[in-house]
Amino acid sequence: MTTKPTTTFSHHQCLPLPPPPDDTTTTSSLTHLIDSEPNHMPSPSYISRFRDRTIDLTARQDSINWILKVHAHHRFSPLTAFLSVNYFDRFLSSHSLPRHSGSWPFQLLSVACLSLAAKMEEPNVPFILDLQIFEPKFVFEPKTVQRMELRVMGILNWRLRSVTPFDFLPHFVSNLPSSSSLLAASSNLVLSTIRVIDFLGFSPSTVAAAAVLCVAGASVDFAADGDRQMAAFFHERVNKERVRSCRQLMEEYLLDTCPSSRHKRPNSGSAPSAPASPIGVLDAASYASCDTRSENPGSTIQAERPTKRLRPSAATDVQPP
């Protein structure tokens, strides 16, 4: 059940750092997270379905753009936006939407995923109708969205407490200088990865490690200030080659997209390496543009003023796909 939002201070500007645990507890926690993360990722064939046009890439991007606008307007946490897209991708990776029904199935799925993520993470959850802003083509009645939420939860096997890169970031930055600012910047970078489908091929722990390395701007030994047990853990469980590949994609697609990006580094004069795939180039070039960034550290989208909300239309009797 949703509750009417109240006026509160702006929360979730960045993820808070937890009190430093002992090394054994940290290692055990990270081991559990890494062991669990494959259960919260889209199927391995998901990216290939965009390449063969089984799934409409543009529809995915339109859905993400809308989710991020609403996320910024309501000042949701970065994790809420990331979870929304995680639910969205996991659903599509195992369930096909009607291909000839127009845009309403994607829009309904977007509303349902954002609503579920807000219920999981936000202290004040807007009404379902209050989520449907920024001139949606369809406005769904709450009961329709709730039926779709049940459909999504069933497809996801009720695994809504997803393992995401945000679970790893506090562990990875806790022993580094300026950990609070590093955490906020890394969170922004992680959130921006949801636009580029190539990042779906990397595990959450890999994305988190690559983001910290990108923001730190130098080679970082995550266990430099830890003991041998922690150092051995990273050596054994974190694939350095995958982290390097993910970091390279971030530098090519995300950090160098906008000349004004605060994470952008001076051009060394060398030619950029070849992109990982044509679909990734299309994704990054079309949607990771300068006008999608925000100075709000809790969001990468600048929220425009929403238009007057439409009354529920003929879409109210739509059945969830």
Structure characterization notes:
With 321 residues, the protein is mainly alpha-helical. The protein folds into 2 domains: 48-161 and 302-317, Cyclin-like (Cyclin A, domain 1, Orthogonal Bundle), CATH 1.10.472.10; 165-265 and 272-292, Cyclin A, domain 1 (Orthogonal Bundle), CATH 1.10.472. The protein is built from 13 helices and no strands. Helix 3 (57-73) runs parallel beside helix 5 and helix 5 (104-121) crosses helix 7 (142-155). It starts with 22 loop residues before the first helix and ends in a 34-residue tail after the last helix.
Entry summary:
This protein is mainly alpha-helical and 321 residues long.
List the helices and strands and how they pair.
Blueprint lengths: L22 H14 L9 H6 L5 H17 L4 H17 L9 H18 L6 H4 L10 H14 L9 H9 L5 H14 L11 H13 L11 H10 L2 H16 L22 H10 L34
Helix pairs in contact: 1-11, 3-4, 3-5, 4-5, 5-7, 8-9, 8-10, 9-10, 10-12
Note the overall shape.
Answer: globular
CATH class of the largest domain: Mainly Alpha
Number of strands: 0
Q: Let me know the largest β-sheet.
A: none
Q: In the CATH classification, which architecture of the largest domain applies?
A: Orthogonal Bundle
What is the percent of helical residues? 40-55%
By CATH, the topology of the largest domain is Cyclin A, domain 1
Q: State the end-to-end CA separation.
A: 22 Å
Percentage beta strand:
under 5%
Number of helices: 13
Q: What is the string of helix and strand elements?
A: HHHHHHHHHHHHH
The chain-level structural class is mainly alpha
Radius of gyration: 20 Å
List unreliable stretches of 5+ residues: 1-13, 257-317
Looking at CATH, the homologous superfamily of the largest domain is: Cyclin-like
Number of domains: 2
Mean pLDDT: 76
